[in-house]
Design goal:
By secondary structure, the protein is mainly alpha-helical. Helices cover about 80% and strands about 0% of the residues. It is elongated and about 70 Å long.
Amino acid sequence: MPALALYDMLALGFIVFAWLGIGWLIEHPPARWPSVSYIMQDYRHMWMREFVTRNPRVFDGTIIDSLRQGTAFFASASMIAVGGGLALIGNPVLLMGLAADLPLPNDLAQMRLRAGLMVLFLVNALLKFVWANRLFGYCAIVMAAVPNDPNDPNAFLRAGQAADLNITAAKSFNRGLRSIYFALGALGWMLGPWGLIATTFVTTAVLFRRDFASASRQVILRGR
């Protein structure tokens, strides 16, 4: 492990704090200013309540299938990106060539460390997407167990279980997306600690806006 300068350690601490902090804020927003992710939990419960009385239920199965396809796509993309990042770290010639062409550190260990931060975020994203895909599969199975008769005492019980699984899967998927954002932000470290601080700030601001101040949020809030 190469020695880090003070500013590098501060920048590294800042991106980790921002990543954890914005994630916590999105999942535990103020009651008077809920995030998009939090609002969508209510819609997922509404969806499952409507699902009980919908006949036929082909539409609901199509939605779950599309959600699983989305998680599978991002998992595949993350796996390719992780492979590319590891190949970059393991190729000192390419790394030092980049360092020569751009204003990057000319120390191989430092370059590997900075590229490694991006790879760590990508690995976390991959794990979250894989788990989200599996949870959406669980949700689909529980939805299939919901009785067709709305008067069955298990109908709304099973629908509630499906909603909770759906929400848990969506949380994992959103965490994966945030890791993708911060993996891109981590590239700023290639330009030094101030570059990392700047890209972390921009990444956090983008995530905050999309969950707390976007036009889509206003649309979702209508009639709620």
